[in-house]
Design goal:
Layout lengths: L14 H7 L9 E8 L5 E4 L2 E7 L1 H13 L4 E7 L18 H12 L4 E6 L13 E2 L4 E2 L1 H17 L4 E4 L6 H11 L6 E8 L6 H7 L19 H13 L3 E5 L5 H10 L4 E5 L1 H12 L5 H15 L3 E4 L2 H9 L6
Parallel strand pairs: 1-3, 1-4, 1-12, 4-5, 5-8, 8-9, 9-10, 10-11, 11-12
Antiparallel strand pairs: 2-3, 6-7
The structure holds ligand PBG.
The site of ligand PBG has 12 residues, from helix 6.
Length: 333
């Protein structure tokens, strides 16, 4: 046989045939845009380790949300940076009806009722120790049961303020079930839970902790976040979260954990989300600022890799940039 009957290049001949046969695609609806909020007014403060990404005050965040909505983004995930006087070892302030998070939810929902507002649920912005839970000081341990109680109160306060979904990022055992029970009992059965199911103890969260001033004051997060050496454990976490009542499962970080994204999407019928975290963003920004990589291209390639691995939903600091590119007809442009 002089020539092969199957020529794989035929389906690569033109933009038209490549688009027609592409197995995956991106759309602004796939993205959840994280937003960092702090107290005060008129603030738009660039995070040094996340060039081009900002913390906003309540007045300026509205402009940013408008820009996100204008490029087709339909969901945001809120994080707040709290002042030191709001931090203790109980997480009490996390559930204050008039806390910064609760005010942010109300203001954003009032202006954008259709926008899906999701909130981070973990105690680290409220912890004097920078941990996601309540610490037993003597033992230097994070106590599961009391932390879950505090998280339930925190989650309820977000929902009462008008949030549509909560996203528990703390990795305590049993917290999804406890939050689901509380929602059912309090009349919030229709509210969603995006479970950080396979959240790894990663070195890629550094820039985020700079942004929120939430680095652990002692030790690390390895007694609650997952060991990067483990894969099957991620599937176990996902099964548990699904059984406890999660509506969407997340893998975090993204790029180094695409095998886990594939595992979860094969083993659950719930939508799988992936979080391209601050360190991934920082790496891409650093290399592209140096001119070593092309920013637009590497951004789109990184995002499509999540879709190819099986994610439906992508949390990314590139949400706005990528959406701009997509509504301008990428990859035809
Ligand atoms: C807090 C939380 C973290 C991130 C999301 N929620 C940091 C951490 O667990 O230390 C990381 C996000 C990012 O790096 O972009 N529980």
């Amino acid at each position: 046989m002089a020539f092969p009957n199957q020529r794989k290049r035929i389906n690569r001949t033109s933009t038209g045939i490549r688009n027609l046969t592409a197995e995956t695609s991106l759309h602004p609806h796939d993205f959840i845009a994280p937003l960092f909020i702090e107290g005060g007014t008129n603030i738009k403060s660039e995070i040094p380790s996340m060039p081009g990404y900002y913390r906003y005050s309540l007045d300026t965040v509205i402009h940013e949300v408008k820009e996100l909505v204008d490029v087709g983004i339909q969901s945001v995930l809120l994080f707040v940076k709290e002042s030191d006087d709001k931090k203790d070892n109980t997480g009490a302030y996390a559930a204050q009806p008039n806390g910064l998070m609760q005010q942010s939810i109300r203001i954003i929902k009032a202006q954008f009722p259709e926008l899906l507002v999701m909130t981070d649920v973990a105690l680290d912005p409220y912890s004097i120790y920078g941990h996601d839970g309540i610490v037993d000081i003597e033992k230097g341990e994070i106590i599961n049961a009391v932390t879950v109680e505090a998280l339930v109160k925190m989650a309820l306060s977000h929902i009462e303020a008008g949030a549509d979904w909560v996203a528990p990022s703390d990795m305590m055992d049993g917290r999804i079930g406890a939050i689901r029970d509380a929602f059912n009992v309090k009349g919030y059965a229709h509210k969603g839970i995006l479970a950080y199911s396979a959240k790894y103890a990663s070195a890629l969260y550094g820039p985020f902790r700079d942004a929120l001033d939430s680095a652990p004051g002692f030790g690390d997060k390895k007694t609650y976040q997952m060991d990067p050496r483990n894969r099957k454990e991620g599937i176990d976490e996902a099964y548990l979260d699904e059984a406890e009542g999660a509506d969407m499962l997340m893998v975090k970080p993204g790029s180094f954990y695409l095998d886990v994204v594939r595992d979860l999407s094969d083993s659950s019928n719930l939508p799988v989300a992936v979080y391209q975290v601050s360190g991934e963003y920082a790496m891409i920004k650093a290399a592209t600022e140096k001119g070593w990589l092309n920013e637009q291209d590497i951004m789109m390639e990184s995002l499509i890799s999540f879709k190819r691995a099986g994610a439906k939903v992508i949390l990314t600091y590139f949400a706005k940039e990528a959406s701009k590119r997509l509504i301008n007809n990428y990859p035809n442009s």
